[in-house]
Amino acid sequence: MATDRRLSPSAPLRVRAGAFIIAWLAIAGIPPFSGFFAKDEIIFREGDPKHEFFLLRTGRVALEMAVQDKTLRVHVVEGGDELGWSAVLMGGGKRFQARALEPVDALAFDGYKLLDICRADNAFGYKIMHRMLGVVSERLQAARLQVLDKYSPIAKKAGA
């Protein structure tokens, strides 16, 4: 992470689904810290054991997979989106590589603290995990579409 600093109350946040998570994390007492990433900076690599969970304020991030000697872009997330959902699956490592496509400003939360609170408060944990399942489902669908684009007979005829 390029720089860490405490969250400034005046910092902008494009509100989408991430607003729900921010509200619940604030209620649970998980303080965010800010992370800034330069264009083309790798935020995390596939398999990294990092435990941060991010909510993007601004910027776009490519989610990528290493396939043979290539990097395959699976999905792009932007301000208001969640990043690093695998932080709540301790021990598994990151599922994708995340690379900033432009300067990124993000809120970062400690995944260990988030998981502890989810375990201690079942209602909170259910809501967070339900939201995370939606994120996982979205990313799975994006990966599925990439595979279809790459390997479908129609795509092969078109030169993909």
Please explain how this structure is put together.
It is a single chain. The chain is an alpha+beta fold and 160 residues long. The protein has one domain: Jelly Rolls. The chain contains four helices and nine strands; from the N terminus they run E-H-E-E-E-E-E-E-E-E-H-H-H. It has a five-stranded antiparallel β-sheet with strand order 1-2-9-4-7. Helix 2 crosses helix 3. The longest helix has 30 residues, at 122-151. The radius of gyration is 16 Å and the shape is globular. Residues 1-16 have low confidence and may be disordered.
Task: Provide a compact summary of the structure.
The chain is 35% helix and 31% strand. The protein has 4 helices and 9 strands; from the N terminus they run βαββββββββααα.
Characteristic terms for this protein:
Jelly Rolls; 160 residues; alpha+beta; 4 helices; 4-stranded antiparallel β-sheet; disordered N terminus; 5-stranded antiparallel β-sheet; single chain
